[in-house]
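Page 47, continued from p. 46.
Same chain as before, 51 aa.
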Amino acid sequence: MSTQLDEATLYLAKQLIWIDLLRDEIWEIYANKAGNQAYEILRKIQNGAAL
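Result:
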């Protein structure tokens, strides 16, 4: 792999970092609202359960 990255590759890397930071922020808000059930609710939704 070349040590020089093109602009599109750098842009994608920056987008991934932004998405990761946004995910962390959303998780904090969600976890505060869902409380101790946060992981359980998330797993159920991921597995297709209708809540």
